Amino acid sequence: MSLKQKTISGLKWSFADNIINQGIQFIVGIILARLLSPVEFGLIGMVTFFLVISQTFIDSGFSQALIRKTDCSQEDYSTVFYFNIILGVLCYALLFLCSNVIGSFYNEPALSMIVKIIGINLIVNSFTIVPKAIITSKIDFKLQANISFISSVLSGIISIWMALFGWGVWSLVWRTISQNIITALILYIKMQWRPIFVFKMDSFNKLFSFGSKLLISGIISSTFSNIYLLVIGKYYSAADLGYYTRADQFKNFPSQNITSVIQRVSYPVLVTVKDDAVKLKRGYQKLIKNIMFLSIVLMFGMAVLARPLVTTLIGEKWLPVVPYLQFLCLPGMMYPLHALNLNILKVKGRSDLYLWIELLKALLAIPTIIIGIFWGIKMMILGIFVNSIIAFIINSYWSSKLINYSIIEQLMDIIPSLAIALIMSIGLLFVGFCFHTVSLLILLFQILIGGMIVIILSHFIKYKPYIEMYEIIKSTIKNDKINLYLNEEK
Prior knowledge:
The protein is built from 21 helices and no strands. The protein has 490 residues and is mainly alpha-helical. The chain has 2 domains: 1-245, no CATH class; 254-490, no CATH class. Helix 7 packs parallel to helix 10 (169-190).
């Protein structure tokens, strides 16, 4: 299978994985938002900061190290597997011991028990890091897509049932726990890989020399990406944090999900051509163009349609989410540029640069935190947007050095996407002005109009990212039809 075929196949199944998993979770989240209150979502938001940091520590950068190493042995996999489990147990024990302190910090006594129970995720997830790394290195996401579907559906059913019967915040807690347990069980039932009873210090040292820098940078990145939850939870109410987390989840659905798909597929693919400067730049440039086309259009559309989107899907009680969502769409639009420019450092093996860049950006986040404490959540989000622009400048500087892809080239590659998104936004605003009421039918009509504007403009100017995506979708559908016909003939 050629590099292009591997990439397209990986993208297809990775998109399927994310669309299935996140799509079902998004729908479940909408149902739960109608059944539960912002306060209950806020309580989970308060715990999220500590869980994310712990999970980053458990991974220790080993998953990226395993993917990057093209000749991993059973000893390598087994060594990482046992190390992850030990760290998972230790992190859970520490979180368990600190649960009362966390409850006191937020002045929310109920958090103590929530932390003790939801922390089980750390142990469960430690079992899945190596199997997921193996799947990713093989660019085989079909199995992961199937697992995501089953775990998302079953955990969604469990959480909705609990919410209907008055379990409140515990329906959100057991939603994540049940999904991770189901994922781990199916993963080990379906996969052929099993650890052997070996722990080699030589394997550990070689992998950790690369992964340790990613570990430190990951902890720094996770801390300053999620510290806003800590600030809002501490200095504002649980309801305010609930509104913010719900807005963030709306924003993440298109932005971070698309980026994570591209990163997950592109990293092992680009690793295979890391020594070919021309192919690496060409492949990376194509990724930037395509993903930013999707990101910019979706973020602009979400910002314009924020009010009808929130009101229609989760109800009037969530209206404070609207301004947060509109503000968050700005850094959300920039997220893929930030993430993909960092990805190239890992591909080139420069985990040392990755670490220093994360340290620098962590320092830049400090003023934003202070703004959030003294001037409010909206100003804090604007600060996050400014930080994302600075982060892009820093990251793209090293992309220019490593693969000769300058910031000017990157900006020129995304300007047509900005123009298309602006014209689409004007069209959506005009349609919204014509209707004075909000309903699901009007929202769907606006989405349809926005989609038509983007397609017509892209087709008219023969915009390459649109044409490439159209061809991939068309060839995928064609191949599926051929496969279906052949199966019927058999």
